[in-house]
Amino acid sequence: MAGSPRSPPPPPPPEFEISRQSRIFAALSKKVIDLDELRMLAAQGVPDAAGVRSTVWKLLLGYLPDDRSLWEQELAKKRSQYAAFKDEFLSNPVETARQVEKEGNNNDNAEHVENGLLHRSEVTQEEHPLSLGKTSVWNNFFEYTEIMEQIDRDVKRTHPDMHFFCGDSSFAKSNQESLKNVLLIFAKLNAGIRYVQGMNEILAPLFFVFRSDPDDKNAVWKICRSRFILLLR
Fold it and tell me: Residues 6 or more apart from 214 whose CB is under 8 A from it?
C-alpha cells in the first residue's frame, strides 16, 4: 500500500518580505537604533525568529534604550528593580512575622542568658494580625486579598486553548504564577487603578513573546514584569 503523499514544501517568502526582514535585521544591528525607522518596519509585521520580535517590542515599548551598548546594564537594573518589588509587595505576612520573631529571639537570647532571664516574645502594633496601620504587613495582606482572588480567577482563564498558559504542567503553572505576581505588583504600585479585569489579557501576549525569547540573558519573561508594571502607570 502506497504511503500517504507528502505535503508540498511551503513556498518561499516573496522578495519584498525577504527585503523587509533584512531591513529589520539591519536596523537592529546598528550601534544606536533608529526607533522611527524600526517602528515603521514593525508596523508591517515582525519576523518571529531568533528573538527578533521580543527585541523589537522591548525597544518600541521603551524598555531597552536605543544604544545597544547600554542593554546589558539596563537589563541588570530592571531585574534588580523587579526583585525589589517582589520583596516589598509579595511578602507573606506569616513568614515575615516568623522572621521578625526569629531575629528578635536571636538578639534577645544572648542578653537574657547573661541575665538569667527567660525570653518573652513581644509583638509590635504593626506586626499584629489585627493591626490597621498603613505599614502593617497583615493589613496590607488582607486589603489585597479580594484583588488576589480576582487575579487568580482571571489568570486561570487566560488563553485556555494554549498549553503555555493552561494545564497541569509545571511549566504552565509557573507561567500562571508569574502572571499573578506581575498583576498584583502593578495593583499595589497603582493604588488609584489597582487591578482591572482584563489586564491579564493585555499582559499575556507580552509575557508569551518575551518568555519565548531563546536568549536567556535577554529573556523578558523577567523583564516584561517590570516593564508591564511601568507601561500602564
Answer: 50, 51
The residue type found at 184 is L
User: What confidence score (pLDDT) does residue 120 get?
Assistant: 47
SS3 readout for the chain:
CCCCCCCCCCCCCCHHHHHHHHHHHHHHCCCECCHHHHHHHHCCCCCCCCCHHHHHHHHHCCCCCCEHHHHHHHHHHHHHHHHHHHHHHCCCHHHHHHHHHHHHHHHHHHHHHHHCCCCCCCCCHHHCCCCCCCCCHHHHHHHCHHHHHHHHHHHHCCCCCCCCCCCCCHHHHHHHHHHHHHHHHHHHHCCCCCCCCCHHHHHHHHHHHHHCCCCHHHCHHHHHHHHHHHHCC
8 A C-beta contact, residue 78 and residue 226: yes
Set of cell numbers at residue 140:
496590607
Residue 189 burial (CB count, 10 A): 16
pTM above 0.90, yes or no: no
pLDDT tens, 6-43?
666 665 555 556 677 888 999 999 999 999 999 999 99
Residue-range domain boundaries for the chain: 15-47, 73-123+134-231
Please count the residues of the chain: 233
CA atoms lying within 13 Å on the CB side of residue 88:
12
φ/ψ of residue 67, rounded to 5: -85, 110
- Residue in the structure block whose three cell numbers are 511601568: 230
Rounded to whole angstroms, the Cα distance separating 181 from 149 reads 12
* Paired strand residues for 67: 32
